[in-house]
Amino acid sequence: METLTVRRVVEAPVADVFDWCATTTHYTRSPYVLAARLARRGADAPYGVGAVRVHTWLIGRFRERITAYDPPYGFDYTVERSFPPARHRLGRMTFSETSGGTLVEWTTTFEVRAPFAAAALTRVFAKPVVAHVFGDILRAADAALTGGAGHR
Fold first, then answer.
1. What percentage of the chain has pLDDT greater than the value 70?
2. What does the alpha-carbon distance between residue 114 and residue 14 come to, in Å, rounded to a whole number?
3. Which long-range contacts (CB under 8 A, 24 or more apart) does 39-47 make?
4. Range of the domain at 136
5. pLDDT of residue 127
6. Domain of 87: which CATH number?
7. Three-state SS at 105
8. What superkingdom does the record give (predicted)?
């Protein structure tokens, strides 16, 4: 299993950044995310505990369930199903106020399931690709919340 963390400061208030990142449909502002939808509402909030999110990226499809929800400071999720198949231990986004806005830390622990060399495949190919997509989604959040370039 590989753990990956992507960090970015978004120049917006923590509550706004949390709301943007919790709302999965915003992820399509990245060209790497082809579709994103809320498949099931959460217990106490649309994207709260129990919510199911479905994402289609250029590299695959992911069905996620929200397992912890603490607005505006963080939420956890697990990938229940994916194609290509992967094992997933934890996904977490945390949000903290900084002098420049909001620090977002997006962490995931995963491994591509493959008959041979799963660890190497994850480390060499999947981890850099996931890092790039996470970074681009956070760039899109920054652009959307600050009116910056790259906003679509």
1. 87
2. 39
3. 39/63, 42/66, 42/69, 44/69, 45/69, 45/71, 47/22, 47/23, 47/75
4. 2-146
5. 66
6. 3.30.530.20
7. strand
8. Bacteria
